[in-house]
Specification:
By secondary structure, the chain is α+β, with helices and mostly antiparallel strands. It is built from 2 helices and 6 strands, in the order E-H-E-E-E-E-H-E. The protein has a 4-stranded antiparallel β-sheet with strand order 2-5-1-6, covered by helices on one side. Strands 3-4 form a two-stranded antiparallel ribbon.
């Protein structure tokens, strides 16, 4: 089963430099387990664009879909045999203690 771990933090969050080695170690462990497919940090939310199409009209606005105190600042795409294993793996991510991690299972994997 594939899951997306949505890494969420306060909109002013900047990862402390000391966190980078911990994240790299987490990525390497997830790869070793055969669970990590991909992942990345996102560019600042101020650079986001939101598009909607209604009928023949397309609207494009600057910014995220929802205004909130916490933002999605990155993601990890993982493959785990169960939601319990996805939760366990997410609980070891170094940023979990600084913000939140939303765990979302994908509908279908080819």
């Amino acid at each position: 089963m594939r899951f997306v771990l949505l890494i969420c933090n306060n909109e002013s969050f900047r990862p402390p430099p000391a966190l980078e080695p911990e994240v790299i170690a987490w990525v390497e462990e997830a790869k070793r387990r055969g669970a990590r497919i991909s992942g990345s940090r996102f560019r600042p939310v101020a650079e986001a664009k939101t598009m909607r199409i209604r009928g023949d009209e397309r609207s494009l606005v600057d910014g995220p879909v929802v205004q909130a105190k916490e933002r999605i600042t990155g993601y990890e795409l993982i493959d785990c045999p169960s939601v319990e294993e996805a939760i366990e793996l997410a609980s070891t991510h170094p940023t979990a203690v600084l913000g939140a991690i939303e765990i979302r299972q994908l509908w279908h994997v080819d």
